[in-house]
Every structure is written in structure tokens, then in C-alpha cells.
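Sample pair:
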Amino acid sequence: MEFITIVLAWALVQYWGSATPVHRDEWFNSLLSGLGSYRKQVMLMLVAMILLPALAVSWVISAFDSLLFGLPYLLLNILLLLYCMGRGDFFELVNEYKKRWQNEDYEGAYLFAHTQLKIDELEGQVSDSQQLNGLVKRELLYLGYERWFAVVFYFLLFGVFGALVYRLTSLYRSQCGDENEIVTLDTIIIVLDWIPARLLALAFAITGDFVATMTPLMDSLVEPLQSSKKLLSDAAHAALMITANPALTAEDNEINALQALLSRSAVAWLAIIAFLTLLS
């Protein structure tokens, strides 16, 4: 059932462009606001904001497992998997940025990266348009990863509970203002990203230049705290051999190639999941 759920959810995202119709986070924001007086107690907040909601939802939908041949259970799993996918329309974000870049509106590209992509390193660290574009490409790769690949990985391992834990952790991190919360959640995200990010890098190797991609992938194994954003960026550039390919020197062509690499890797993941499902 997991494979059917993933395929149907993926098909719906392709049809809608994103899973926006089911992304309703008002309950999460209200809960966070209601627990505002406990924000200094980080572990308590993690339990209340992430573990308890994920456990409660998993327990509720389990009651539908044997009802009407499992059809309600399948539907609920699809809706919840869609809910756990990344926010916003990824392709629209990419196209909006490319439009500004192609029109040489570098100030608009910077403002877009600052307001829409919320890249932390922008302020005080961007000296030219090429550096801006490098940061944006890295962020877009990570967004492509965290919105689908990581969620699917944890859905396969732990069902709806795992997918919800990943998405709620990400939502909580996006609302952080306290330094202790930020440090704790960043550490949790590094741990959660460790395996799926490296599996995606391996998919880059399979769907791109295998030998070149294995270098950053192997380097990441001996540097366990390496940023997932850096790993995915290095692996994607190696898979596409961007620095050695004259056809990809134009920045918009490079972004198109990165999008295509993510799409090929998604297909590779689906094929591998289908194969493993047949074996089980």
C-alpha cells in the first residue's frame, strides 16, 4: 500500500503543481501560539509540537485500516502524505527566479531569494550576482529534496508518523525565534537528513556521472556533520559535470539541468521502491 500511496500522491502533485490544496497549517500555528509560555522548555515543546501530533494522527488513521477494504485508510494516507510534502509550488519558485535572472534584474533576484527562499547567507555575504546564483541553486536543490525525497523516505520507514515528524520538525524550525530552539532543531534536521540526503546523492550518481558523483558522496561519509545542502549541491554539480560542460555554463541552463536531475532521481526512487515492493 505504501507504493500505491506514494505514486498517487506524486501524480496529484504533478497535476496540481504542488500539494497546496491540503497544506493547512493554521492548527500548528495556533498550537505554537498557545504554548508560547513554554518556549524556553525545548524538549517539552518538541514533544508537544512534533511527537504528540504525529502519534495522535497515526493512531486515529489506524482505526480505518480494515474498514471498506482499506480504501478510507488509503485515502487518508494519500492526503496526509500530501500534507507532509514541501510548501509552495517548487516549479513556480524556480521559474520566478529564472525570469528575474534572464531579465538581468539582479536586484529583483536578490529580493526574491531573500523574501521567498529565505536564504540565511544572503546578507553581508553576497558580493556579486554569480555568488547569489550559487546560493540560490543550492537552496533550490535542498527544497527539491526536502519537499518530496525526505518525506517519502520516512513514510516508507515509519508510515504517516515518520512523514509527519519530518514535516512538523521543518515547520517548527521555520517558526523559530529562540536561539536554543534553533540549535536543537537544526541538529535534529541534520540527523533526519543524514540518510535520505545521501541516498538522493546516490540517485544523482545513478542518473548522472557516477564516478564524479561518488567523490562528494564518499567525502560526506567521513564528514558526518556536513551540511546536506552542500552535499546535494556538490553531488549535483558532479553528476552533471557542470564545470566541464560548456553547454551548462549559462546559469539558466544550469538551473534547468538541476531540475531535470531532480526529476530523473524521483523516477529512479520510484523504480527502486517498486522493485523492493515486488521483492517483499
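The mean pLDDT is 85.
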